Amino acid sequence: MALLNLRSRQECGTDTVLTRLPSGSFTLDPTGRVVASTLPRSYPGHLVQQVSQCIMTAFKTARSSHIPLTELIVDFPAFKITARELRGGAIIFLAPRALGQR
Amino acid sequence: MPERPKILLLDDDQELLELYREMLQRLPSSPEVRIAASGARAIALLESEPFNLLISDLNMPKMDGLQVLTVVRRKFPNLRTAVMTSLADPQYRTRAYAMGIDLFLEKPNTPQEIKLFLECVDSLLFRNEVDAGFRGVQSKSLMDIIQMESLSHSSCVLKVTNGPSTARIWFENGEIIDAECPECKGEPAVRKILSWRAGAFETLPAELNRPRTVNTSVQGLLLDAAQAVDEAIAAEVSTPGPAADPAEPAEQESPLAPLTRLPGVEFVMTLNREQRAAESWGVENPDRLAEWLLETTSQFEALGEKLHAGRLVQYEALTTRNHLVTVPHNGSTLCAGFDRTPGAHAIRETAEKLVALWLS
Asked: DSSP H helical segments within B6-158, as ranges?
């Protein structure tokens, strides 16, 4: 049993680790690089990158579709992302939300 | 027309010039905006390089706006011209239109007025030059005239003649309050009048205490009319038979039209994501918007899974013009565009009602 536990832990990627949804903000330059952040250091960098990439792509495709997008508010049941366009980059606010919170 | 349109702004107030330049540069067409602080400088610039549009103030020292426009109309007859002034006197308006300008606007003060001003300028930039003809009041479409009356918050009576038929539209502070044509009254009359494709019109003094019979906003009426005309044209193309009457939109009403009657809703689009098919009402560039929505919705759904944050509920996109609310549901997506003026809270409340209506 101990061996099984050991094996399953070793096979677990970082994605399967239970991570708290972060609260804070970070700023992206026009290339999508994080230039400033108030997110906890414990929050995995690759997940920050996923959020960054998603937001930057949304702004970029909006520009190419001639949609003058300035702000995005993405609502998940447990999480809210607010992103504002910032001279080609973006400032992104992440806020976990409690059940039923709006 | 060059890819990036060029606008020349003429005003003696340098600060205002800078402010309007900044606003106009944010238009979706990203125009190149040049400024001139005097009539002489503006004419020199017009002589040295081509422009698509001149926006001029009226009240200026040395050479006033009407003088500049006289020279411009003679030297550059194909140039689009607009007047933007703080002079509310209708006399100047009449004179400027008589000189063949395309648009007369009062200097915008509120966010709503700024939005309308930018929309008017944008539409003017892309008006088809081939269809321009001789520009004067007579060559304007009725929709243009109604928009202008609305924009300038006019109180007047618009008398419209189409062959033997004569109709009237009553405006009060830019809102249509009543209409009358030979066959009907109220909103049906507005629709009937807007379906007329040619005719003449005349502005008469306002009538006080006219009872209100029309409660839909000017924007809503114009969108309804545009939709009815588009559908009538489509019906003419697809069925070679008796032409459909665009004045009876009720029979051909888009299934999305009821959703747009909620306050503040400017357009609606629904997407079937499996078939990548979109249906829209009132959207300026439906293909581009549909493409962006399909891609963005998929990305946010995938992000929700990666973050373990749950299924995407909705996302809001704020543009310089609108507040868009997008809601995915069972392989379909609803996107509604709202006027930003009422504020985010009111928009979210209306969006909830709209989604409930859509799901029902």
From this structure: 14-25, 39-48, 65-75, 90-98, 111-125, 142-151
Domain of residue B270 covers: 257-359
Q: Are B142 and B193 in contact (CB under 8 A)?
A: yes
d(CA B284, CA B278): 13
- Top pLDDT among B2 and B354 is at B354
Confidence of residue B79 (pLDDT cuts 50, 70, 90): confident
For residue A5, what pLDDT is reported? 42
Q: Please give the pLDDT value at position B266.
A: 85
Nearest to B344, CA basis, from B319, B323, B321, B313: B323
Among candidates B288, B300, B304 on the partner chain, residue whose Cβ is nearest the Cβ of A65: B288
The first and second tokens of residue B53, run together, are: 């549009």
pLDDT in tens, A22-50: 899 999 999 999 999 999 988 889 999 99
Give a yes or no: residue B27 inside a domain.
Answer: no
B298 reaches A (C-beta below 8 A): no
Q: Report the residue from A19, A68, A78 with minimal CB separation from B321.
A: A68
**Structural domains of chain B, count:** 2
pLDDT band at B130 (very low <50, low <70, confident <90, very high): very low
| Total-model pTM | 0.46
B265 forms beta bridges with B338
How far is the C-alpha of B180 from the C-alpha of B276, rounded, in Å?
43
Residue B18 falls inside a structural domain: no
Picking from B329, B335, B315, B316, the residue whose alpha carbon sits closest to that of residue B359 is B329
Structural domains in chain A, sorted by start: 19-96 (3.30.450.30)
B163: left (phi over 0), alpha (psi -120 to 50) or beta: left
The answer to whether the Cβ–Cβ distance between B319 and A68 falls below 8 Å is yes
Q: Are B352 and B281 in a shared domain?
A: yes
